[in-house]
Amino acid sequence: MASNKMNASTSNTSKSALFQSLEIGGLTLPNRIVMAPLTRARAGVERMANEMMAEYYTQRASAGLIISEATVVSEQGIGWPQSPGIYNDEMAERWKIVVDSVHEAGGRIFLQLWHTGRASHSDFHDGDLPVAPSAIAIEGDGVHTPSGKKPYEVPRALETSELPGIVEDYRKAAERAESAGFDGVEIHSANGYLLDEFLQSKSNHREDQYGGSIENRYRLLGEVVDAVTSVWPNDRVGVRLAPNGSFNDMGSPDYIEQFTYVARQLDQYGLAYLHVMDGTGFGFHELGPAMTLADFREVFSGPLMGNVGYSRESAEEEIVDGAADLIAFGRPYISNPDLVERFENGWPLAETADMSVWYSHDAEGYIDFSTYQAESKQPESCGVE
Question: pTM for the complete prediction?
Answer without folding.
Answer: 0.94
